[in-house]
């Protein structure tokens, strides 16, 4: 399609419009195509850029508030009339007549419309002119140059005052903005911090719930704790929602409030159940660790003769009553434990000290050691019981956990040396130090 | 871009372009094409309509090459109309944006 064809087809399609309008548009399109061609495009390409002819026509007609359908009808009429023109002249005349009549009617309507519109348009223009004049006057009034010396000074002063006013206004404005900005960010950071806390809390609740749930399955009395944990979890989620609500301005008050209420309610129920569970615990009495029992061992220590001589020689310093000093000789016993009783017993020979040790243990092979320390001359007592903390804790733990399942807590007796009795003849004098 | 969207804002873009400085048709088409991809043919009828509605005035000016060009100049009502359109557009786009954001956030 070349330029001439394009323009003639377009003219035909736009035939509903006023002649003057059509000419105007034609001119513009012609110029447009010319310029495109000057820009290096071929005639065909320049026209192709307009796209589909029907669409283009419809677009133009639409801009004139003419229905696009009308153009198609018009086109059909034209085509139809063309066909008819070739076959029958009479129908051609009718076709042309109707199309001409349509055109004529359209023109008349448009003229009438213009006629009716005219006074309004004129009124509008006059109002606009008035406004323009007013604006100009105002501007002129503003820019009246200052007259005379005092006038100039006055203008300077007013100018300065105006400048100061605008400056202060600006400063106040800025500081207000800065203040608003700071408050805004403090607010946001505060809520972010709360959000972080609540988030960590939520994770803890989930963790706690997981642990308690598994223990619950293992028959520990933790129903209350579980329910309370779920309640706490709900409360934390409500907290997160509250933070989001404030930060992101979302609207889920109802969800948040119901979560909060539900959470608090569940926590209450949980605490109640837990109270019931734990207050039903009973005292299980004294309980020994499994396998432990009391065993008593008795060991006699014989005071050696040279002990006596030694002490005698040591006592030679005292000149009188050497004999008595021998009998009055005091033996020192060093204990490795603080719980002991001294019992005077006539059945014990004079040269013997009898140690009775009571153990609580599950081991049979413990027995006390009694040795003589040559340096200090002390009789050293050691119960011989070796306390293994880890072993004890493991045995205790088993017992405690099984007791918790049975809803009781007992007075647990840990293994160890219970008590030491030192039996001596009343005539033997001893001294005990820890 | 959706052609229905284009049609609505085309008028605003044309008014704004001519407000900055007077233009002739081809120049204007090029200017508008920078912003939105639009069929070149549809701008002329729009110009014609805006002129008929007294938002534009036209005058001919000789050019160094070819026939004299028809320049478009915006009138005071044109500027008012442009401001109205701009306000409408801003409100429209902000409303739509707000709505979309709200829906997205839900």
Structure notes:
The complex is a heterodimer of chains A (434) and B (106). With 434 residues, chain A is α/β, with parallel strands linked by helices. Chain A has helices at 3-13, 19-38, 43-48, 53-63, 68-87, 89-142, 148-217, 223-248, 253-279, 305-315, 322-327, 389-405; strands at residues 282-288, 293-302, 330-335, 340-344, 352-361, 369-373, 378-382, 408-413, 416-424, 429-433. In chain A, strands 2-5-9-4 form a four-stranded mixed β-sheet, with no helix packed on it. In chain A, strands 6-7-3-10 form a four-stranded mixed β-sheet, with no helix packed on it. A two-stranded parallel ribbon of chain A has the order 1-8. Chain B is built from four helices and three strands, in the order αβααββα. In chain B, strand 2 and strand 3 (69-74) form a beta hairpin. Classes of the chains: A alpha/beta (434), B alpha+beta (106).
Shape of chain A: elongated
Question: What does the main sheet of chain A amount to?
Answer: 4 strands, mixed
Kindly report how far apart the N and C termini of chain A lie: 125 Å
Radius of gyration of chain A: 58 Å
The SSE order of chain A reads: HHHHHHHHHEEHHEEEEEHEEE
Number of strands of chain B: 3
**Assembly of the depicted chains:** heterodimer
Our estimate of the beta-strand percent of chain A is: 15-25%
Which parts of chain B are unreliable, with pLDDT below 50 for 5 consecutive residues or more?
A: none
Counted beta strands of chain A: 10
Summarize model confidence as the mean pLDDT of chain B.
Answer: 86
* Cα radius of gyration of chain B in angstroms: 16 Å
